[in-house]
Amino acid sequence: MKYLKYLSLVLAIVLMSACKSQNAVASRSEVPQTPGPPEAAQIPTSQKTPQPDMLTGPAERRELQTGSFGNWFNPNYSEYSVDQSLVEELKPLLQDVEITLFMGTWCGDSKRETPRIYKILDATGKTQDIELITVDRSKTTPQGLEEGKDIKRVPTLILSKDGKELGRIVEYPIESLEADMLKILKGEPYKHAYAD
């Protein structure tokens, strides 16, 4: 008798699981599924390369737009209103100008001004010509790219022509980034915030 009860119980469990499998198959076949985008390959957590806390050396704008850096770069970029009339004056003056930007991904002033600089240069069509150099808290890079450049504070935006420095904006502008750049490019008297 016990054997018969046991056998009935096993049979009931087998039938129930078979019903669930058939119902799942039936419900999947009854509702047409729209194919979604292909799944991105999942990289095991142990193989993911974490974003560094600080960039040092030559860098690309896209590095500032992603990960934790994007948390400050993207909002500061979108919130800044470019002075369009000054941008129109800047466009022809920037034609043959080399642009070097030293900044720190750890620095509050760099986090504020770097996205603004990019937005202004985007408006002038000059974005591709920026040499972006990220420094550590000692204002140095592993490659020594700061040597001979007198980098004491960041951000430091250096405008040069034919290898000769025209002027620089250090840490923050005196009037505005656009107005300060215009003075430098026109050769008008200009002293950055920390000039002697």
Automatic annotation (TrEMBL):
Signal peptide start and end residues: 1-26
Pfam families in the cross-refs: Thioredoxin
Listed InterPro entries: Thioredoxin-like_sf, Thioredoxin_domain
Record-linked SUPFAM superfamilies: Thioredoxin-like
Coiled-coil zones: none
Domain Thioredoxin as annotated: residue spans: 99-171
Keywords for this protein: Signal
Segments of this protein annotated with the region Disordered: 27-57
The protein's name in its UniProt record: Thioredoxin family protein
Taxonomic path: Bacteria, Pseudomonadati, Bacteroidota, Flavobacteriia, Flavobacteriales
